[in-house]
Specification:
By secondary structure, the chain is of the alpha/beta class. The chain has 19 helices and 7 strands. It has a domain of about 50 residues: Orthogonal Bundle (Arc Repressor Mutant, subunit A), CATH 1.10.10. About 45% of the residues lie in helices and about 5% in strands. The strands form 2 sheets. It has a 5-stranded mixed β-sheet with strand order 2-4-3-6-7, covered by helices on one side. The chain has a two-stranded antiparallel sheet with strand order 1-5. The protein binds a DNA duplex through helix 16 and helix 19.
Length: about 475
DNA sequence: CTATGGCACGGATT
DNA sequence: AATCCGTGCCATAG
């Protein structure tokens, strides 16, 4: 009944191996481009727009774990499942306007086409022209140069039409694109985040009411205005800084997609989402691994049938297509499978971290995990690379952070400094840590401090002012 | 003289 | 094989 899984574990050919590896390396956003490219270049491959469990391929009527596949899980176990949803349009309104997939040669490196590809299925043909106009008129930060009314006039469209298209654009991948400024961009991004947790609400309040103050880091002033403790405000500010990007147009696209181009301060849609029932602290975590595209891929049965009726040299060529398509599907399945197993073990091991924050991250290496689930360590490296994950509190962090060996210690140092009566020198901090069983050198404390933007003791006079950074 | 940051080395990790 | 990380040594700022 539940097949597919373990038996597809062993690579069949070297081609299979190679392709699985390269797919594994990609984030959802990148994978999406790859899938689209494959779809448009291989007629044997078909995207079925239907919510189906990616695991057992049963039909699902709503998003969520497939009831058949979230098998044998007990109380404490996390529910890890492959989601039929893609991560790019989280709140996709169910307007079912089928559009023939346009077979334009994909030029994925361009922001405009990237956005258009995502919009393709949601966009009225009439709106397409408008969308192109809007996208090309954005300034380098991704903001509108002209107010909507002007756009409506110069394209001779209705105001509502413009408004509708703007809404759509602001929801797809670089979120907050085509808004009127940093403030609106942040708010648009906030709308897309999973909204449980009070930080979200606080963040919204701050952005709405105290945007300029936020920019100047006038924490105290905001706290006073909202009548909330400064530390909470600080938390929310850090949250905004970590997860939202006031300049969506600069995000990611300028710097290309290489490993070096990953700017940590850039928001992008998470590849994985962890949620849990806030009222049940002991309850299972729910881990949703998004698909790269909504719907699922298969070898087009019509194409196979058609091949049988073809003659001569064509049949050779078509067979190649089919073979490539089925290989692609298999690789994708294996990628999913690996991701699922990885997350399964990761979430069990790091539950404390996920629920309670940085300090509880247990040190572990990719090699250990690899050993545990029986794959090569390089597989884990690839699986972890370039992926991001949304935690229950709404923070979006790179998956690689699960393997940050020093995160817990750095967090502890932050706390020591926050609670210090008088500025402690690195040596003293090292001593405190030593007493807690953490043996690190003085020099290392200094390194961690600088990572966390904590000033040296001498400059840390005994007022609450810590860490000065700018965006 | 003390606290820090820079440079560079070696071992671990990827 | 390439990269990351903790650390020791040394120059320098206070």
């Amino acid at each position: 009944m539940f097949q597919v899984q373990e038996q597809s574990q062993r690579p069949l050919t070297t081609a299979h191996l190679a392709q699985t590896m390269s797919l594994l390396l990609l984030s959802n956003m990148e994978l999406r481009d790859t899938v689209m490219a494959e779809l448009s270049s291989n007629p044997a491959l078909e995207l079925v727009e239907e919510t189906v469990c990616p695991n057992c391929q049963r039909r699902l009527n709503n998003a969520g774990p497939c009831p058949a596949c979230s098998i044998q899980h007990q109380e404490q176990d996390p529910i890890v499942f492959l989601s039929p949803r893609d991560s790019f349009r989280p709140s996709r309104s169910q307007n079912l306007e089928e559009q023939p997939p346009d077979h334009e040669p994909a030029a994925p490196e361009d922001l405009t086409t990237h956005v258009l590809q995502q919009l393709a299925s949601d966009l009225h043909p009439d709106d397409r022209r408008l969308a192109i106009y809007i996208l090309s008129s954005l300034d380098e930060d991704g903001f509108l140069q002209d107010p909507p009314a002007i756009i409506a006039r110069s394209t001779r469209s209705s105001f509502f039409q413009v408004d509708r298209v703007l809404k759509l654009i602001s929801q797809v991948d670089p979120p907050g694109l085509a808004t009127t400024g940093p403030k609106q961009a942040l708010l648009a991004q906030l709308d897309l985040l999973p909204d449980d947790g009070s930080i979200l609400r606080l963040a919204r309040q701050i952005i709405e009411g105290y945007f300029t103050e936020l920019g100047r880091r006038e924490i105290e002033k905001i706290a006073e205005g909202l009548e909330i403790s400064p530390s909470k405000i600080r938390q929310a500010a850090a949250f905004i800084h970590d997860n939202l990007n006031p300049y969506p147009g600069r995000a990611f696209w300028g710097s290309g997609r290489g490993p070096q181009g990953s700017n940590p301060n850039v928001y992008h849609s998470p590849d994985i989402l962890i949620t849990h029932n806030p009222s049940d602290a002991k309850g299972p975590l729910v881990v949703e691994i998004f698909s790269a595209v909504s719907g699922w891929l298969r070898v087009n049965p019509m194409f196979s049938k058609a091949r049988a009726r073809t003659n001569g040299d064509q049949i050779e060529e078509w067979s190649k297509y089919i073979e490539r398509a089925s290989l692609f599907v298999k690789c994708l399945q294996q990628r999913n499978n690996t991701m699922r197993r990885l997350l399964q073990t990761l979430v069990i091991k790091q539950r404390d971290f996920i629920m309670n924050g940085d300090r509880y991250l247990k040190p572990m290496t990719r090699a250990k995990i690899a050993d545990e689930i029986g794959v090569h360590e390089s597989t884990i490296s690839r699986a972890v690379a370039h992926k991001s994950i949304a935690l229950p509190d709404g923070r979006i962090i790179p998956l690689a952070r699960f393997f940050d060996r020093s995160l817990a210690v750095r967090d502890r140092i932050k706390e020591i400094v926050k609670n210090e009566k008088q500025p402690l020198t690195d040596d003293q901090i090292a001593d405190i840590l030593k007493n807690e069983g953490v043996n690190i050198a003085r020099r290392t404390v200094a390194k961690y401090r600088s990572i966390e933007n904590i000033l040296p003791a001498r400059l840390r006079h005994r007022n609450g002012a810590r860490n000065g950074e700018q965006v």
